[in-house]
TrEMBL record:
Superkingdom classification of source: Bacteria
Domain UmuC residue range list: 6-106
Family statement drawn from the similarity comment of this UniProt entry: Belongs to the DNA polymerase type-Y family.
Range of residues in the leader sequence: none
InterPro entries to which the protein is assigned, alphabetical: DNA/RNA_pol_sf, DNA_polymerase-Y, Rev_trsase/Diguanyl_cyclase, UmuC
A Pfam family assignment: IMS
Name of the molecule in the record: RulB protein
Segments forming a coiled coil: none
Biological source species: Pseudomonas cremoris
Length: 116
Protein backbone atom coordinates (compact mmCIF):
# COMPACT_ATOMS: atom_id res chain seq x y z
CA UNK A 1 0.00 0.00 0.00
CA UNK A 2 1.27 3.46 -0.91
CA UNK A 3 0.46 6.45 1.28
CA UNK A 4 1.35 10.10 1.02
CA UNK A 5 3.04 11.68 4.02
CA UNK A 6 2.59 15.30 5.08
CA UNK A 7 4.77 17.26 7.47
CA UNK A 8 3.99 20.62 9.09
CA UNK A 9 6.97 22.84 9.88
CA UNK A 10 6.34 25.65 12.35
CA UNK A 11 9.15 28.08 13.17
CA UNK A 12 8.68 28.57 16.91
CA UNK A 13 8.76 32.18 18.18
CA UNK A 14 9.49 33.19 14.59
CA UNK A 15 9.33 36.99 14.94
CA UNK A 16 11.53 36.92 18.06
CA UNK A 17 13.95 34.59 16.29
CA UNK A 18 14.13 36.99 13.35
CA UNK A 19 14.95 39.86 15.69
CA UNK A 20 17.71 37.76 17.22
CA UNK A 21 19.25 36.99 13.82
CA UNK A 22 19.98 40.69 13.34
CA UNK A 23 20.49 41.60 16.99
CA UNK A 24 22.47 38.78 18.66
CA UNK A 25 22.55 40.74 21.92
CA UNK A 26 18.91 39.63 22.33
CA UNK A 27 19.85 35.95 22.75
CA UNK A 28 18.90 34.51 26.15
CA UNK A 29 16.96 37.65 27.08
CA UNK A 30 13.21 38.07 27.42
CA UNK A 31 11.96 39.54 24.13
CA UNK A 32 8.49 40.34 22.89
CA UNK A 33 7.43 41.71 19.53
CA UNK A 34 4.67 44.29 19.56
CA UNK A 35 2.15 44.32 16.71
CA UNK A 36 1.39 47.19 14.39
CA UNK A 37 1.08 50.36 16.41
CA UNK A 38 2.80 48.61 19.33
CA UNK A 39 -0.57 47.84 20.87
CA UNK A 40 -0.25 44.18 21.83
CA UNK A 41 2.23 41.33 22.06
CA UNK A 42 2.32 39.19 18.90
CA UNK A 43 5.42 37.08 19.66
CA UNK A 44 7.31 36.01 22.78
CA UNK A 45 10.69 34.43 23.32
CA UNK A 46 10.87 31.43 25.67
CA UNK A 47 12.35 33.75 28.30
CA UNK A 48 9.38 36.12 27.98
CA UNK A 49 6.96 33.19 28.17
CA UNK A 50 8.62 32.09 31.42
CA UNK A 51 7.82 35.54 32.86
CA UNK A 52 4.14 34.76 32.25
CA UNK A 53 3.68 37.22 29.40
CA UNK A 54 0.66 36.21 27.33
CA UNK A 55 -0.02 36.57 23.63
CA UNK A 56 -2.11 39.65 22.83
CA UNK A 57 -1.24 41.25 26.17
CA UNK A 58 -1.34 45.05 25.97
CA UNK A 59 2.24 46.26 25.52
CA UNK A 60 1.89 49.19 27.93
CA UNK A 61 0.87 46.82 30.74
CA UNK A 62 3.64 44.35 29.91
CA UNK A 63 6.17 47.19 29.94
CA UNK A 64 4.95 48.43 33.34
CA UNK A 65 4.89 44.96 34.89
CA UNK A 66 8.17 43.55 33.55
CA UNK A 67 10.59 46.45 33.13
CA UNK A 68 12.78 45.18 35.98
CA UNK A 69 13.24 41.80 34.31
CA UNK A 70 15.22 43.31 31.43
CA UNK A 71 12.37 42.72 29.00
CA UNK A 72 13.08 43.98 25.50
CA UNK A 73 10.11 45.11 23.41
CA UNK A 74 10.62 45.24 19.65
CA UNK A 75 8.27 46.93 17.23
CA UNK A 76 7.21 44.53 14.51
CA UNK A 77 9.43 44.59 11.42
CA UNK A 78 7.31 42.75 8.85
CA UNK A 79 9.70 43.34 5.91
CA UNK A 80 12.45 41.59 7.91
CA UNK A 81 10.17 38.69 8.86
CA UNK A 82 8.99 38.30 5.27
CA UNK A 83 12.54 38.25 3.97
CA UNK A 84 13.72 35.66 6.48
CA UNK A 85 10.59 33.59 5.89
CA UNK A 86 11.26 33.58 2.13
CA UNK A 87 14.84 32.46 2.75
CA UNK A 88 13.67 29.70 5.08
CA UNK A 89 11.01 28.51 2.62
CA UNK A 90 13.49 28.50 -0.31
CA UNK A 91 15.93 26.42 1.71
CA UNK A 92 13.28 23.92 2.77
CA UNK A 93 11.96 23.71 -0.81
CA UNK A 94 15.33 22.36 -1.96
CA UNK A 95 14.82 19.33 0.29
CA UNK A 96 11.28 18.24 -0.58
CA UNK A 97 9.37 17.41 -3.77
CA UNK A 98 6.45 19.78 -3.04
CA UNK A 99 5.55 22.38 -0.45
CA UNK A 100 2.59 24.61 0.40
CA UNK A 101 3.36 27.80 2.32
CA UNK A 102 0.73 28.08 5.02
CA UNK A 103 1.81 31.36 6.62
CA UNK A 104 4.94 33.43 7.18
CA UNK A 105 6.28 30.90 9.70
CA UNK A 106 4.54 27.66 8.67
CA UNK A 107 4.50 25.39 5.68
CA UNK A 108 3.17 21.98 4.82
CA UNK A 109 5.52 19.61 3.06
CA UNK A 110 4.20 17.09 0.58
CA UNK A 111 6.62 14.22 0.70
CA UNK A 112 7.11 11.37 -1.69
CA UNK A 113 4.82 8.36 -1.51
CA UNK A 114 5.75 5.89 1.20
CA UNK A 115 5.33 2.13 1.35
CA UNK A 116 3.56 0.64 4.39
Amino acid sequence: MTRKAFILIDADNFYCSCERVWRPELWNKPVVVAGSGDGCVIARSPEAKSLGIKMSAPVHLVREEHWRSGLIICSANFPLYGDLSSRMMRTIATLVPAMTVYSIDKNKLHTVDTQT
